[in-house]
Amino acid sequence: MTELMTDPSVIERLREALLKAQYTVDGCLEALGPIAYSALSRSESVAASRAVRTNDSPVATLLKLFVLQESVDRSAAARALPLDDALAGGLLAEDRFDETVRALADIRPYGESDADWWLVSDLGSGLVTGHSSPMRPDYVLGVGGASTTLAQLTVREPVARALDVGTGCGVQALHLSRHADRIVATDVNHRALAFARLTAALSLDTDASRIDLRAGSLFEPVREERFDLVVSNPPFVISPESARGAGRFVYRDASLPGDELCRHFLEQVPGYLAEDGWCQILANWLHVEGVDWRERVAPWVRATGCDAWVVQREVQDPAEYAELWLRDSGDYGKPQYIELYQAYLDYFSAQRIEAVGFGWITLRAAGAELPAVRLEELTGPIEQPLGALVPDWFRRHAFVRETEDDELLASTPAPAPDLVLEQVARPSAGGWESVSTRLRQTTGVHRTGEIDPFGIALLGALDGQRTLGDVLDRVAEDHGLTPQALRSSALDAVRALIEEGFLAVG
Q1: Is the pLDDT of residue 2 over 70?
Q2: d(CA 230, CA 276)
Q3: pTM above 0.90, yes or no
Q4: What is the C-alpha to C-alpha distance for residues 145 and 107, in angstroms, rounded to an integer?
Q5: SS3 string of 264-313?
Q6: Is 260 helix (H, G, I), strand (E, B) or coil?
């Protein structure tokens, strides 16, 4: 592929053309309609191709070129964008025989509610219609489910310095530009850095200078530096090739056996975090026969000395895992598919791997003598974006850790505003027999938990005005208990309710 355009004036002309054509998230939604637009998110292009088949507007032309990977008339392309610049800049190729052009790269509208961005990457490999191109080892991925998850999870508090490890096409760096003064984005893949550079220049214009792109593996390019926020969607995929230290695709396949890359990342990252700095990464970890996944991952996070919240969102058996990543690489239905599938199963069987977990790890360098560490499974619905709620989790655990019993009794907690009480009963001879009583959050991670009558009475009496001690004394009196006895037995339960987010303090 021709070297990607780097001249600022050329990039500015392209940017102006994309805006003029309304080649934005909103513009594409209007051109395609909601059904076809939604189908594209599932790599189904038939409905989208049908929607723009007879449409010769600039936005339809750009959709055909960059998203649907269709050839278009040279004249139509010239009406939609600076054609000579795009040809010279490695974005398009020309077929002089039939006067058509085709895309060599994917330029995809992206953004936030008040920002129009464009992600530049290699052409997508998963289009169902068959217009997909074969993937090269240094393939550069556009936005996907994992990168969207990380973007939604990331803490968006203002920071001075942020680091994006394994930036790929630059999607996380764009999000970081909204709340970080300076961003360093690294990647071992030089082609990825070229795409990320164009992504930043197209999307951020003159503000792109705040993103410092550097080549190298993991933390090699930032030795002796510290950051307030580190994010990474690393190449965590566990494959037979990664077991030999040579994955098929740089963007996704680990360069270390099994889940060693994630352990290695966590081993290094504390040395690059500023005081109170955050680290948020996506990860895969192995479920090895006879070992709970928490036992495997807990030593990794405890060794960091940071407060840590580890969430397992999904578990796939070896067959599901192989199918996912073989479809991702466009191998489904190809001659090599069965051989590659068998290699996954053989590898997992030899290593006694029963499943692979997917989730996220968030660290905070709080400097606590006894860091809070929690590993849990949350496979139910989660309200996104979760990034605004992540600091609350760490603040709650810090409050519980740092608050003595007397201070807790003097505090004025109240039930969280999103809390509901659910009771399940079944018919019995005397009327109704209670089966369970649970608390449930209606927002955020939708956490649930059993609660007993004393807990119900306590939550019902706490109003954010009266102290916890006073309310406990009242509940004790109502239930014929001595105040001191209830205070002694209830504080651990209250601390748990605060940690879980059922009780809000301050």
Answers
A1: no
A2: 12
A3: yes
A4: 18
A5: HHHHHHHHHEEEEEEEEEEEEEEEECCCCHHHHHHHHHHCCCCEEEEEEE
A6: helix
